[in-house]
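Structure tokens please, single chain.
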Amino acid sequence: MPKILSGAAIAAMLLVAWGADGTAPVKKSATKSAVVKKKPASSTKASAPRAPTPGAPASRTTASSRRGGKKAPVSRVTWRNRQLAPTPDRYKEIQSALAAKGYLKPEDANGSWNQASADALKRFQSEQNIESTGKINSLSLIALGLGPKHETPSMPTKAPPDPGQQPPATGQQD
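Here you go.
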């Protein structure tokens, strides 16, 4: 019996070695450049090429665009492409806060950031012991009361007691 098993194992090894052709297996990588997808021919295409429209720029169809090519990247909001300047409404909100605190004339709160607004912000920043640059920054906005707005309170509050519920005993007896 052991001789039969040994013979079968040797035969299996010979079959495996014979099928390998003496080359090492190559790992295939599935890259977009290696995979070519063919689109089915459309039956609605006209057989004659269309003439370009006068005044329209000439366009060429490249092989990559016919195959699908690269798609436009999905735009995500990152620190590189976020809002770089406040909107006029936000400027007006900041100017109104400066006017309410007496640093800016109320008629100057018009939504356009100008030298009067920058000077008022500098005075406010110096009195608040913030670096007085005249530029809008997070510390200045927080000091003006215009910092981030949160929907939930920062400290959990106790719910009012039910009117039918008796208050807890304080430990003192009459």
